[in-house]
Amino acid sequence: MFPKWAGKCEACGGWNTLEESVVAKATPGGMKATSKAGKIEFFGLAGVNPPPPRVPTTIAEFDRVLGGGLVPASVVLVGGDPGIGKSTLLLQAGAALGRAGKRVLYISGEESIDQIRLRAARLGLTQAPMDLAAATQLGDILASFAQFPDAALVVIDSIQTMWTDGVDSAPGSVTQVRAAAFELIRAAKTQGFALMLVGHVTKEGNLAGPRVLEHMVDVVLHFEGDRGHQFRILRGVKNRFGATDEIGVFEMTGGGLAQVANPSALFLAERRGNVSGSAVFAGLEGSRPVLVEIQALLAPNPGGSPRRSVIGWDSGRLSMLLAVLETRCGLKLATNDVYLNVAGGLRVGEPAADLAVAAALISAASDVPTDPQMVFFGEIGLSGELRQVAQAELRLKEAAKLGFAAAVSPKRVAGGAAKISVPASLRLVEIGHLTDLVAVVTRGAKPKGSGDVK
Ligand code: TYD
Ligand code: MG
Predict the structure, then answer these.
(1) pLDDT tens digit string along 171-219?
(2) Distance from C-alpha of 317 to C-alpha of 283, rounded to nearest angstrom
(3) Residues 94-108: pLDDT tens digits?
(4) Is residue 314 part of a domain?
(5) Closest ligand to 255 CA?
(6) Ligand 1 neighbours (beta carbon < 6 A)
(7) Whose CA is nearest to atom 2 of ligand 1?
(8) For residues 442 and 445, what is the distance between their CA atoms, to the nearest angstrom?
């Protein structure tokens, strides 16, 4: 190793054969880039590694998804459809950090300074300290970082617009995006600032271009929502420093993104009592219970192949549930078009939603509204048996808090799971099989399609 420029290589005697290679400084809590004499160092598992220090953005819903705030020298990728509000979210988060006394650089490759200022004015953030730039050339951007050794956060909006001279392909191409991200990440790790990259999502729902980007960063967040709705959900997809199943809930208002501390109340706000085909699911998003309305609509379609249209849930799971309802409960649904919707634009991934979906379908088939004071949760197996799901207590508590009077859940196996405490204001209806659910939902009325009614 040569610490400074030398013309001759002492090892082989050749002239001008040496190449400069810059060794990155060690990063706090990260990997050491230096090695002695070409060897790596090994460590035992034991040892005290203090948890990474966190810098809260002061936007609680954002911090929750990050796992308690930004980790210095970490890299966060925020993906989402165009127009969903990524730039708005990061401008607000940056401004909040700026106001907390941190240095924030916001570099946009998509909008001019004037456009960003206009948005800031709309969001009432013009007084927040922040350093704005409109740039896309990576070399210039990297060179400017030296002026800001105190930078706590650098926002790049978006990674697809950045390009580096070193690579011969067009901005936005896989090679460019990967090379640009690599350079930026290296700068973040050596200088110790947190880096936030905005990434666009392709039609297939992948972060545009390279999935590799997801491997390169520490945290991947998806900003989701239905553009027709005002709710926006920030979902953790990958997090090297915390849990990945957390969500942050926001509402897009005229003045930017507002935090929603009580999502259940929001998702149920537009629910109308006494219509058939609706059931309330007591769900769980990360550590947080969320109540949502599941809506089902059946329309007869005697000829042709019936449609199955699902928004907010897995369509394969719906097909399975329809098959179980047909085979185990005698409901005739095969000749119906089936529409299923999770109200409010939330995407539900839990199998625990099975019971609520089934309740909505049974209610639609029998034209009997479910009890509006009732919530449902539980998983359904192929033989129609019900399975317990995690965190029943948390779900029940949330239902009681929102004024629900009853909850339908799978029967606990004797001698199995520990006792759960049920809020006093809540009646717990434990059922073992899907046929019991038909009885609970229809309260004696026969579903239209069921075997003995023609
Ligand atoms: P934007 O943050 O530009 O989305 P992205 O960066 O993901 O493409 O947000 C665009 C949308 O948000 C735009 O259609 C208008 C809407 N919006 C509001 O409704 N209220 C606001 O205060 C702001 C700033 C944007
Ligand atoms: Mg944008």
Answers:
(1) 778 888 889 999 999 999 999 999 999 998 765 555 555 567 888 999 9
(2) 16
(3) 999 999 999 999 999
(4) yes
(5) 1
(6) 80, 82-88, 119, 122-123, 252, 254-256
(7) 85
(8) 5
